[in-house]
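Pilot study result, target chain (377 residues):
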Amino acid sequence: MANKINILKHILIAFVLVFTTSTIFASEPTASANHNPHSTTSTVEKFNAGKMIMEHVSDAHDWHLWGRTAIPLPVIIKTDKGFDFFSSSKFEHGHATVKGNYNYKLEEGSIVIVDDAGVVNEEASSKITDFSITKNVTSMFITMLLMLWVFISVAKAYTKNKGKAPKGLQSFVEPIIMFVRDDLAKPSIGEKHYQRFLPFLLTVFFFILFSNYIGLIPVIGVNLTGSISVAMVLAGFSLIITFVIANKHYWHHIFAMPGVPIPVLIILTPIEILGLFLRPFVLMIRLFANITAGHIIALAFFSLIFIFGEMNTGLGLGVSVLTLVFTVFMTCLELLVAFLQAYVFTLLTAIYFGAAVDEGHDVHNHVDDHKPAVAHH
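Predicted structure:
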């Protein structure tokens, strides 16, 4: 057993080192020629740390791998003239115009409509509906396919090995499912109602967990749960379900808390109503901020290598050693944060569901079980 633990430790350390070195080389700026095709002189682009960081953490119409290598993704645009379909490679990283129902150009990650002179038509651009398969959407599909593969495989294993001890992938997933059920759902919602919400809680937990860990894979990692729109949709589902399942006892405490004087209710009720919407907002901001912050901090330290390297090559090499050490630490921390964010989001969602279905207690019939029984003589 000890040997197996040591092997796992060595695998984890190797993964961390591969991650850090791969990300450093993937983030290295490259020299490029002037974008004017008729120019005979070449210039070296000055490293822009802010641009590099924002390109990594934001969504895009292509999947950037390293240097100028990127996987083009489908572009689907709807305008008043109908749909246009083409590959994002036609934009040539924002340097070319694509002709369709309109002339399209990519500016700062957004598709705009331009005239023949290349001037942006603000009015026409505001009417674009972008259905493109972006980097985040592709990552979401990958996460969904991975979840389907994992749970279909586990379900088949349960059917095939019924009554036998779990093994393989089943033995890895089962403890996590039991953890969500016994440590999150049951204590927060209660024995009577937890089974109704367990499928949703498990789906949210594993979706966030898988997305976070996929985002840590070298080169191909995507900041999916660090996208404010993805976090907002997840929190929105929690809010909608809470509204649908909430009982009379819950709404009575929101609009007119029992035992509170009417003058106090004038102040308390608006606060309680505001709290309904603040809870999913907190869920959204917590997930978005924590995941994005980890990527930004690591990339900011990567940027120090190139910033100091532009001043002096030896200085850049010296800073790279410190950056590598810090990145190893940050990667280990991110492995923990990836799990914690899935745990916290699922736990708070379960608590909100538990409050919505709580039936309360009858204070008149309540018996204090902590008081010892008094013997009659």
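One observation from the pilot: The longest strand covers residues 74-79. A full batch analysis is planned for the follow-on phase.
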